[in-house]
């Protein structure tokens, strides 16, 4: 029985190989000219980035706007959030300038913008439910949406792995 099992793969490859010309084609031959794209890093493929002061920024699919918020680490450190100060639409901010503030039962803290740009809107969910920061700090409870003036600023921020290493030592 073992001898038969060893022969089957060799036999199958001899029988099937001549009948499957696709196996001998290069992958590019099956696609129209110019439709193959190489892998490259673009602004559209960037993951969420972090600052050392515990803010995050995530570039939208359009490559022009980004959502900004505080990290789960910051939300946990603050404790129960009771008030969030949101920015006004049209506010011009530079990287490192306040774009809002978060107040908890323990303390209050400015939220610094990781990137330069113009505020498109604040997250009105937080007007009625500041506690959402504790429930989903890196999801639905973002602070502001910003039209990014220089996407290259994202390159100077921390990737998720580096941020986590620095805050879990």
From TrEMBL:
UniProt GO BP: glycine decarboxylation via glycine cleavage system; protein lipoylation
Lipoyl-binding domain mapped to chain residues: 65-147
GO cellular component terms, A-Z: glycine cleavage complex; mitochondrion
Cell compartments where the protein resides: Mitochondrion
Cofactor needs: (R)-lipoate
Pfam families: GCV_H
Major localization class: mitochondrion
Modified residues (N6-lipoyllysine): 106
Cofactor remark: Binds 1 lipoyl cofactor covalently.
Keyword Mitochondrion: yes
Keyword annotations of the record: Lipoyl, Mitochondrion, Transit peptide
SUPFAM superfamilies: Single hybrid motif (SSF51230)
Function comment: The H protein shuttles the methylamine group of glycine from the P protein to the T protein.
Subunit structure: The glycine cleavage system is composed of four proteins: P, T, L and H.
Recorded family membership: Belongs to the GcvH family.
Protein name: Glycine cleavage system H protein
Organism: Aspergillus chevalieri (Eurotium chevalieri)
Gene from which the chain derives: GCV3
């Amino acid at each position: 029985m073992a001898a038969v099992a060893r022969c089957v793969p060799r036999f199958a490859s001899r029988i099937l190989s001549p009948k499957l010309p696709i196996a001998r084609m290069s992958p590019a031959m099956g696609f129209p000219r110019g439709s193959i794209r190489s892998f490259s890093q673009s602004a559209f493929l960037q993951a969420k980035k972090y600052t050392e002061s515990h803010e995050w920024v995530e570039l939208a699919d359009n490559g022009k706007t980004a959502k900004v918020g505080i990290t789960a680490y910051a939300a946990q450190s603050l404790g129960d959030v009771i008030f969030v100060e949101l920015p006004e639409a049209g506010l011009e901010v530079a990287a490192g300038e306040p774009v809002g503030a978060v107040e908890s039962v323990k303390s209050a803290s400015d939220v610094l913008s990781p990137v330069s740009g113009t505020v498109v809107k604040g997250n009105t969910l937080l007007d009625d439910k500041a506690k959402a920061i504790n429930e989903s700090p890196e999801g639905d409870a973002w602070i502001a949406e910003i039209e990014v003036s220089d996407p290259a600023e994202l390159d100077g921020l921390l990737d998720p792995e580096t941020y986590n290493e620095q805050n879990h030592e």
